[in-house]
Amino acid sequence: MKFSAERAILLKALAHIQSVAEKRNTIPILANVLIQAADGRLSLKATDMEIEVVEEIPATIKRDGATTVPASVLYEIVRKLPDSVEVELDQADSEGPLLLRADRYATRLNVLSVDDFPSMGTGDLPCHFKVGAGVLRSLVDRTRFAISTEETRYYLNGIFFHAADTDAGKLLRAVATDGHRLARVETELPAGAETMPGVIIPRKTVAELRKLIDEAPEEIEVALSETRVQFTAGPVMLTSKLIDGTFPEYDRVIPLNNKRILRVGKKDFSDAVARVAAISQERSRPVKLALEPGLLTLSASSPEQGVATEELDKTRISYDAEALEIGFQARYLNDITDQVEKDVEFAFSDSSAPTIVRDVDSPSALYVLMPMRV
After folding, report:
1. Is residue 358 very low, low, confident or very high in pLDDT (cuts 50, 70, 90)?
2. Which positions fall inside the DNA polymerase III beta sliding clamp C-terminal domain (predicted)?
């Protein structure tokens, strides 16, 4: 095998590939990238047996062949090369080392057998549709903060995508929850997605998909079954296993009769939360919201530092319901308000019941936040 490629193009592809290759796995081949040059095309592939990424890049193929080399090592070498160089990779025989040349730099990389490189396989992916890159970005960005990291509840370790029946017809809905907060975002159902099964896309796949979206063309092709999902964006194809579990009936935790409504500017609120929470270094310490008509008082306390308070009056908030005191973890409040563009609406019931949070300008998103005792 022998080929040459522009350093910038090769580096971009390796950045995608090396983050999937398993660096700490006990199976050495999973740390490698499979490089295949054939029929005038060059493809790079990496897998950890849960996710697989394949990317084709333009290159000058001088001799067909295939090999595998450590992905992170190759990435670091190419990353540190000068910007404008042409990178040549040459393997004289299938068992020999891979020679890399760039300008006056040269190195030899040890290889592992191509025969040992695993293939995930996809089986049949009967559901196919296309979704706008911007739409998919919004669904991912506004829900992924709520993905659980608790491994015992593995079925919460991802985003649940499904076709939901609503009063407005079927919608594509993304949901994530960790038991403390819930994020639900929906959009128009793409053509072809009517029969899609409900699927839970794992946290690591979500992270890789998010990188892919940033560099994707206008639309991303999605193919899925009950056990696999595949995203294709231009020359990059991301395939992943799905979480084999049942996502909880999340609608049950969304309250229906929260009638105490607070509206406040996102920046005014999040800045005030950050200021009062700064008094305590404990991430789990609550911020208390004391509400009365025309006034919101935020406060936090620390046994070591004392108490911090800040008031937002009727010039910056709208609230005309009964008085209420309720507490939330500061980080959870800011995680949700970070998803809001301008104005945020809170719908309360009482101090111990779940609170609904909405972006006033984006009714497609809904968040639920569990209070803390204060």
Report:
1. very high
2. 252-373
